[in-house]
Each structure stands twice: as structure tokens, then as C-alpha cells.
Amino acid sequence: MLRIAVPNKGSLSGPAADMLHEAGYQQRRESKELRIVDPVNEVEFFYLRPRDIAIYVASGQLDIGITGRDLLIDSGADAEEILPLGFARSTFRFATKPGTVGGDLADLKGKTIATSYEGIVAKYLADHGIDASVVHLDGAVETAIQLGVAQVIADVVETGTSLRNAGLEVVGEPIMKSEAAVIRRTGAEPDDPKVQQFLRRLQGVLVARTYVMMDYDCRVEQLEKAVALTPGLESPTVSPLHNEGWVAVRAMVPAREAQRIMDDLYDIGARAILTTAIHACRL
Ligand SMILES: Nc1ncnc2c1ncn2[C@@H]1O[C@H](COP(=O)(O)OP(=O)(O)OP(=O)(O)O)[C@@H](O)[C@H]1O
Ligand SMILES: O=P(O)(O)OC[C@H]1O[C@H](OP(=O)(O)OP(=O)(O)O)[C@H](O)[C@@H]1O
Ligand SMILES: [Mg+2]
Fold first, then answer.
1. What would the pLDDT profile of 32-63 be if each residue is shown by its tens digit?
2. Ligand index nearest the alpha carbon of residue 88
3. How far does the centroid of ligand 2 lie from the alpha carbon of residue 239, in Å?
4. Ligand located closest to 162 CA
5. Coil, strand or helix: which one is 217?
6. How far is the CA of 184 from the centre of ligand 1 (A)?
7. Considering only CA atoms, which of 158, 154, 157, 109 is closest in space to residue 133?
């Protein structure tokens, strides 16, 4: 049975459970459940604190886990990312009150930096030869500056609303970009068929979320131009129509570009252009 760590709380837990559900896995019915077994798919899910997941996976007791890239790196655990999942996207940045430091990261020298991600910050400072002190706080670190606990913070930034509300501005370039990812122990058996099947299912969800199926009819003379607009993942399916001189074309296209592609196809004479959602797939 495959043993998988899933976030039990916070920004990662809802989207992770949704993705697993879409991939056909049973998920817990109520938030107090810490472990469930999905007997049909032969998977055991452990609902753990996102911050602890890399540590469990690195210990070898659990085969894989879903956590944030920033949490994985912060933990320093012996685990590696094997599939980025596209949700909980954020950047990790330094921020402070305007005027506290110049735009240069060297100005952090001698400052006190509050963060919940001590591992990332300490490594960054060491790598850049900056001598500063780090104060660990559990969360809501934006307030640390107002209350005088630190002059600088290092925290997760998504929309920037929390920083703006606290009257803070970012300093320097992002320390890192993060998103949710599947992780496994460094050096774990790379071809474990159960893990490979799990990854294929999640990849199927990612593709179903980002692509749509497009169908249209066009004249044979327009086919080459039309196919250039809809190359598909490998090659589009082209079928003859009963009316001579016309063909039907079917190809996957990126959902974000679907409307533009439909306009372009129409302009070159394609008609009966339809898009339909993909519910699941294996590529
Ligand atoms: N506002 C946000 N937007 C996108 N990702 C976020 C946001 N806040 C946290 N994350 C991501 O969520 C993960 C942290 O999850 P964690 O559950 O520890 O904290 P949280 O989501 O802030 O929840 P809480 O602080 O309520 O416990 C990290 O990977 C982080 O990058
Ligand atoms: O840029 P934004 O869109 O505002 O998002 C970033 C904020 O979201 C998270 O906070 P959360 O609400 O999880 O509280 P926390 O600080 O206690 O973790 C994170 O720690 C930032 O504070
Ligand atoms: Mg938080």
C-alpha cells in the first residue's frame, strides 16, 4: 500500500484534497481525521502539518507527500520535489517599512529579521555573506515590525495585500518562488510503479485543468493553416466529412488560449468550432 502525506491545515490542505479527489482518490470526510485508507486504490493517506511533511517523507516511513516547495527547503529534510502541482503559488521575500533599508540586500547587515522560515533565511544570509539576526515567529510576522520585535521580515507574499495592510514594502528580488509539489525521499527508488501511477493520475488532473478539447470543420485547402493553429500535443486527428472537400479536426489546446484560437480558426474559414472540457486523461 502506498503511504502518502497530505497537508491537514492551511492554504495547501483544501487544494491538495481537491486534486486528490479529482484524481479518483478517496479523501477524509471531516477535518479531524488524521489517517484514512483508500482500499480500492491501495493508498493510505496521513493528514499531517504541512511543515512536518518533508520530515516524515525523509524518514522513509511515508513514500511521498504533498507540501510547499518553501516548506521543503526550509525543513532541510532529505527529500526532493518530483512533481510541481501549480497551486499555492507564492514568492518568499524580505520586506520592511519604507526608509528602513535602501533597495540593496547588503543593507540587511546588522538588522533583526522576523520569519517563520528560519531555514530559508539563514541559508540566504549565509550564501550572501550578510550578518543579521533572525527571530523565529509562528505567523502573522508582518506585525513584528510595528511591535518592534524586528526591523525586517521575510515572509510568503502572494497578492501583497498583507504587506500593504501593514504599511510594508518588499526589499530586493524574491528569495524564492514556491508552489505545492509532490516530494519523496532523496534517493528513493525512482521507478516504483505505485508512485509512477500516482504521479500519472495527478499529471492527468493538471492536464485536464489546463487544456480543453477543440473540434472544428474546415476546407481541405485550409487544413495546413488550421493545424498550425492547433498542433495538439502530438498531432491533431483529421477525419473526412461526408461533404467532399471538408475535414473535421480534433486537438487539445491550452484553455487560456482557446478563445483566441477559435477567432483565428474562424478567420481562416473554419466553422462549427467547439471546445469541451477534459475531465481526466493519461498522456
Ligand atoms: N497567501 C498565500 N498564497 C499562496 N500560498 C500561500 C499563502 N500563504 C501560505 N502559502 C503557502 O502555503 C504553505 C504554508 O502552509 P501552512 O499551512 O504552513 O501555512 P498557511 O497556509 O499560511 O496556514 P496557517 O498560517 O493558517 O497555518 C507554503 O508553501 C506557503 O508558500
Ligand atoms: O500576499 P498575500 O496575498 O497577502 O498573502 C501572503 C500572506 O498569506 C499568509 O498568511 P496567513 O494568512 O496564512 O497567516 P500567517 O502569516 O499567520 O501564516 C502569508 O504568511 C502572508 O502573510
Ligand atoms: Mg500562514
1. 999 999 999 999 999 999 999 999 999 999 99
2. 1
3. 51
4. 2
5. strand
6. 20
7. 109
Question: Which ipTM value was assigned to this complex?
Answer: 0.96
Strand order in the sheet with 35-38: 35-38, 43-48, 2-7, 64-68, 180-185, 79-84
User: In order of start, what are the domains of the chain with their CATH numbers?
Assistant: 2-87+179-190 (3.40.190.10), 90-177 (3.40.190.10), 211-277 (3.30.70.120)
Kind of pairing between the strands at 35-38 and 133-136: unpaired
The predicted-structure confidence for 162-220, as pLDDT tens digits, reads as follows: 999 999 999 999 999 999 999 999 999 888 999 999 999 999 999 999 999 999 999 99
Task: Tell me the C-alpha distance between 60 and 229, whole Å.
Answer: 47
Q: Kindly give, in sequence order, each residue whose CB lies less than 8 Å from that of residue 105, ignoring residues fewer than 6 positions away.
A: 94, 128, 130, 171, 172
Q: Which residue has the cell 509562528?
A: 138
Structure letter (DSSP) for residue 259: H
